[in-house]
Amino acid sequence: MIGWALDFATAAVGLAMLLCVWRLLRGPEATDRVLALDTMYVNVVALVVLLGIRQGSDLFFEAALLIALLGFAGTVALARYLSRGDIIE
Amino acid sequence: METLQQLHGAWQAVIALALVVGGVFALVGAIGMLRFPDFYMRLHAPTKATTLGIGGVLVASLCVNWSRGGFGLHELLITLFLFVTAPVSANLLAKAALHLRVPSRAGDAPPTDDRG
């Protein structure tokens, strides 16, 4: 049962990432692409956590935390760039 | 995987349920982002559904850690961080879209002041 649930969750998150790639390529606005990137990094965190459950290792959670931190910084920088034209004044 | 199969049946049921709920919500968030007609509607799907989806996956991971006698500090940290930062990034993106005058089905965006 738990193996099936792990497989299902991994497949669902992977499919969600593919849909994000579609939105990333299609646009139509720059903000749509940034939103797709933002959703993709949240999904990557979920995938890494799922891999950690599967392997039974604690190392993956450090990686997930790092991805979450850097993804948030990237989204903030891109949104600031879109709304102001520069990132650091 | 083998150690997961040896867990008590109730733990296994809770973990499997959280995993399935998390996967479904992550998928629903991505479908919403793909299918909604304008940017301001598309902003809703990832910020709510996907956050809940990763919440489900992290609850499952927390249960795995607790069933082994751990505390699960890493999962709690990731959950806290993602739940705090998702609304902030959505707010910044909405402000950027208003500034760029991204078209909305609700009519034109109101004139913005340039405080960003």
Write the layout of secondary structure elements.
The complex is a heterodimer of chains A (89) and B (116).
Chain A: H1 2-26, H2 30-55, H3 59-84
Helix pairs in contact in A: 1-2, 2-3
Chain B: H1 2-5, H2 9-35, H3 39-42, H4 44-67, H5 73-99
Helix pairs in contact in B: 2-4, 4-5
Word description of this protein:
The complex is a heterodimer of chains A (89) and B (116). With 89 residues, chain A is an all-alpha fold. Chain A has a single domain, classed as Helix Hairpins (Orthogonal Bundle), CATH 1.10.287. Chain A has helices at residues 2-26, 30-55, 59-84. Chain A is flat and about 50 Å long. The mean pLDDT of chain A is 88. With 116 residues, chain B is an all-alpha fold. In chain B, helix 2 (9-35) runs antiparallel to helix 4 and helix 4 (44-67) runs antiparallel to helix 5. The longest helix of chain B is centred in the N-terminal third of the chain and has 27 residues, at 9-35. The model of chain B has no long low-confidence stretch (mean pLDDT 84).
Keywords:
heterodimer; A: 89 residues; mainly alpha; Helix Hairpins; 87% helix; B: mainly alpha; elongated
- Taking all Cα atoms into account, the compactness measure Rg of chain A is 15 Å
Fraction of residues in β-strands of chain A: under 5%
Output the CATH topology of chain A: Helix Hairpins
Helix share of residues of chain B? Answer: over 70%
- Count of structural domains of chain A: 1
Structural class of chain A: mainly alpha
Q: How many domains make up the coordinates of chain B? A: 1
- The sequence of SSEs of chain A as H and E is HHH
CATH class type of chain A: Mainly Alpha
Strand count, sense and closure of the main sheet of chain A? none
Shape, principal axes of CA atoms of chain B: elongated
Greatest interface and its participating residue counts: A-B, 53 and 54 residues
Mean pLDDT of chain B: 84
